[in-house]
From TrEMBL:
Known EC number: 2.7.6.2
Organism of origin: Chryseobacterium ginsengisoli
Record flagged with keyword ATP-binding: yes
UniProt entry tagged with the keyword ATP-binding: yes
Top-level lineage group: Bacteria
UniProt cross-references to NCBIfam families, sorted A to Z: thi_PPkinase (TIGR01378)
Name the record gives this protein: Thiamine diphosphokinase
SUPFAM superfamilies per UniProt: Thiamin pyrophosphokinase, catalytic domain, Thiamin pyrophosphokinase, substrate-binding domain
Enzyme class: transferase
Domain Thiamin pyrophosphokinase thiamin-binding: 143-201
Keywords from the UniProt entry: ATP-binding, Kinase, Nucleotide-binding, Transferase
Length: 209
């Protein structure tokens, strides 16, 4: 049985939606509820809508009242609080739409939130251009030949070796203050990455859900 969660948050609205049947749980933050409604997403498929409701009051959606979870903690973002709910419900794999676009401080904040959950949840972001996620110290992905692959240290990575990229790294180092690994691309069907220390965010050219 599928154990994936689909979570919509309040960045740019997706241009298309994945099949709801691929998910056991579907949720959104209160800000994302606006665009889902406007884009005619089947709101009955939502399992919960969470947030502090500064973006949406819920007053005109009484039919969905039972799905609203009020999370007023101003020390955490709505994305953070939604992930806490998902974790409490026992899920591990989360596909996030709406994580980028809009105000760029929100985008950076979303990456920071995901970083904080990387040891508890497998979070993948999807937008119009790419999918991106934090990867473990030994990682491989197949079926991406000719796709863009960007390596972004968060904030640094040591002794990194890659295979299958046009510009490979061999025991190299990456840092946001000196050298990053963006705009590379896969020359083989499978790309593998290994590194010894640090944390790495990988972007792969758009791969539809």
């Amino acid at each position: 049985m599928k154990d994936r969660v689909l979570l919509f948050i309040n960045g740019d609205a997706p241009k298309s939606f994945p099949n709801p049947k691929n998910y056991r749980l579907i949720a959104c933050t209160d800000g994302a509820f606006h665009y889902l409604k406007n884009l005619n997403f089947p709101l009955d498929k939502l399992d919960f809508i969470s947030g502090d409701f500064d973006s949406h009051s819920g007053k005109d959606e009484n039919i969905y009242d039972e799905k609203f979870i009020y999370t007023p903690d101003q020390d955490k973002t709505d994305f953070h609080k939604a992930l806490e709910i998902i974790l409490e419900k026992g899920f591990k794999n989360v596909d996030v739409l709406g994580g980028s676009g809009g105000e760029q401080d929100h985008f950076l904040g979303n990456l920071t939130v995901a970083f904080g959950f990387k040891d508890q949840l497998n979070i993948k972001f999807y937008d119009e251009f790419s999918e991106y996620y934090f990867v473990p110290k030994s990682f491989s992905v197949k079926g991406i030949k000719d796709k863009m692959v960007s390596l972004y240290p968060f904030p640094s990575v040591e002794n990194i070796t890659t295979k299958g990229l046009n510009w490979p790294l061999i025991n190299g180092s990456l840092s946001i203050t000196s050298r990053i690994g963006t705009r590379n691309f896969a020359v083989e069907d499978e790309v593998s990455i290994e590194y010894e220390k640090g944390d790495l965010l990988v972007f792969i050219g758009r791969n539809y859900l």
